[in-house]
Amino acid sequence: MATNIMDRRRINGPARSVEPLYGPGAAGADPFAGGRADGRGLDQVRAIYMKTGPLSGGQHEPSESAASGSAYYEQGRVRVSCAVYGPRQGRRSNARMGVFDCEFRYAPFACSWKRRSHVRGADEKEISLMLEHAVAPAIRLEAYPKACIDAFVTVIESDGKAATIAAAINCISAALADAGIEMYDSVAACSMGLRGAQWVADCCQAEEDAAPCSMLIAHMPSADEVTYILQHGKATPEQTDQAVQTCTNMCTRVYAVICRCLQASLE
Amino acid sequence: MSGVVVTPGRRLGLAAEYEAGSGTYVRSGMVYASILGTRAEEPAGDAGGKPTVRVERRNAKFAVPAVGSEVLCRVVRLNPRAASVAIMMVGETPCQEDFQGIVRVQDIRATEKDLVQMTESFRPGDVVRAEVISLGDQRSYYLATVRNEHGVVFAQSAAGNTMVPISWEEMQDPRTGAVEKRKCAKPF
């Protein structure tokens, strides 16, 4: 009987551990030999289109149901929209600091290879938490004691998981700025995939499936701080180091695009 | 430099040369913008000092109550110990969504606190001007109406007419002449 009693309070690793199995990856033939399918350079992200205020009535008088701020973000075939509500009274409150909550959802038709359930999946919860951790450091939460800021992200079309998360981070940053929330800096994010020994920027789904490792970095260029790193797969420390360098540089370029769009929205 | 659209995180100047106004923050000796808006400068006062730099937003829509801020709220519920109110405005800015607040019976008047009766101070539906005295518990902000200019600013009688204050403690319906008790705010 005693063996059936589980200790649920501590993290119990398995009694025996085995090394994960990696696919052939770099050893196999390169399916993208001779450039990328869409003719981009290796360090080129897909074309970005962004618009603020589609769900919040733009410059018009705010109505009761409209969001405080919103943004639509497109990067190639990745299409994401985000609505920000608040600062408003939250369910869980903290007298010193505000609370930032994020909900990430795929639309049922977002992934071309399978229809998503309308029930919130485990991966969506996980990504919601990732987005909170990536964006919260940029918000001046101490300026909103006891208040709650909510962001709702909907993926309209997904093309590469890491790229979708990066797009979601960029979209939230823009929506927060549109809402007039006090922030230290805008967060810009960028993803990369490994192909052979080379890093390829902003992978689409087919490229990501073939990549043995993918990397996502969220970065605040003005403060020069990295808020989130996500590495998925196997890479050598040198490769990881190189990816962090390249990715932060690309984040700065994405940041410039976001800032230009935000400025244009006010002019 | 004024009138330029800036985004959060944009450097506005040295903290040694500028005072950080609204919509800005200071980090490691530099003033940065913290909201999306246009940059504006205010020259230094006669007493000397530094010019103030701030970032303005045309439709600054949001307000969060803080300790000491003056709020306008509507009475939602009464019980003998406290009145529940919905905070509708903070200072001059309307809240997009109501915040919940509480006026405890001991925070209604400054004097003779033990004699204050809740039903003789507020009624549901009254609009009250009050001051935030504490961020309160998990749910509500704590408000007080002890000052003269705080209290009921708008109330309707049982007949449904808007009443006018006739003393610190009474309001009258000008049509029916009925007198009801309230904690009146001093008219400006």
UniProtKB/TrEMBL annotation, chain A:
SUPFAM superfamilies: Ribonuclease PH domain 2-like, Ribosomal protein S5 domain 2-like. Residues 65-182 form the Exoribonuclease phosphorolytic domain. Signal peptide: none annotated. Keywords: Cytoplasm, Exosome, Nucleus, RNA-binding, rRNA processing. GO terms for biological process: nuclear mRNA surveillance; poly(A)-dependent snoRNA 3'-end processing; rRNA catabolic process; rRNA processing; U4 snRNA 3'-end processing. Coiled coil: none annotated. One of its GO terms (cellular component) is nuclear exosome (RNase complex). It is found in: Cytoplasm; Nucleus. One of its GO terms (molecular function) is RNA binding. It holds the Pfam family RNase_PH. InterPro entries: ExoRNase_PH_dom1 (IPR001247), ExoRNase_PH_dom2_sf (IPR036345), PNPase/RNase_PH_dom_sf (IPR027408), Ribosomal_Su5_D2-typ_SF (IPR020568), RNase_PH (IPR050080). Belongs to the RNase PH family. This is 3'-5'-exoribonuclease. It comes from Coemansia javaensis. The lineage of its organism: Eukaryota, Fungi, Fungi incertae sedis, Zoopagomycota, Kickxellomycotina. The gene is MTR3.
TrEMBL record, chain B:
Its main location: nucleus. It is found in: Nucleus, Nucleolus. Residues 68-147 form the S1 motif domain. GO terms for biological process: RNA processing. One of its GO terms (cellular component) is cytoplasm. Keywords: Cytoplasm, Exosome. This is S1 motif domain-containing protein. Pfam families: ECR1_N, EXOSC1. GO terms for molecular function: RNA binding. Signal peptide: none annotated. PANTHER family: 3'-5' EXORIBONUCLEASE CSL4-RELATED, EXOSOME COMPLEX COMPONENT CSL4. The lineage of its organism: Eukaryota, Fungi, Fungi incertae sedis, Zoopagomycota, Kickxellomycotina. The keyword Hydrolase does not apply.
